[in-house]
Amino acid sequence: MSDQSALQTAKVLWHLQRIKRLVRDRLGRGSAQLVSVRGTVCLDPGYPGPATEIRVVNLALMQTRFVIHKPADQVSAADVSTLL
């Protein structure tokens, strides 16, 4: 893996972790939930291009899935607040 490729991977991972922190902060510190974030390609013809998928699983194993129609590096705290 080249240095440039490794740097790009690190940037993507940093943004995914940043979004997880935003979600956990919004849910509240006492909330015991699994948060998963990943980059994806939106299949909705109204929103072509990259998107960020957020999944939240609670202790009852109930899953909620959200999609923000932006790449992870463009997702803001306001975007997360709007979803939750």
**Straight-line N-to-C gap:** 37 Å
Strand order of the largest sheet: 1-2-3
Q: Which regions have little confidence, pLDDT < 50, spanning 5+ residues?
A: none
Nearest-angstrom radius of gyration? 14 Å
Structural class, by secondary structure, is alpha+beta
Number of domains: 1
| Form type | globular
Q: Determine the mean pLDDT.
A: 90
**How many beta-strand runs?**
3
Characterize the structure shown.
With 84 residues, this protein is an alpha+beta fold. It has one domain (3-83). 38% of the residues lie in helices and 29% in strands. The chain is built from 2 helices and 3 strands, in the order H-E-E-E-H. The chain has helices spanning 3-27, 77-83, and strands spanning 34-42, 49-57, 63-68. The chain has a 3-stranded antiparallel beta sheet, with helices on one face. Strand 2 (49-57) and strand 3 form a beta hairpin. The longest helix is centred in the N-terminal third of the chain and has 25 residues, at 3-27. The protein starts with a helix and ends with a helix. The mean pLDDT is 90.
TL;DR of this structure?
The protein contains two helices and three strands. The protein has helices at residues 3-27, 77-83, and strands at 34-42, 49-57, 63-68.
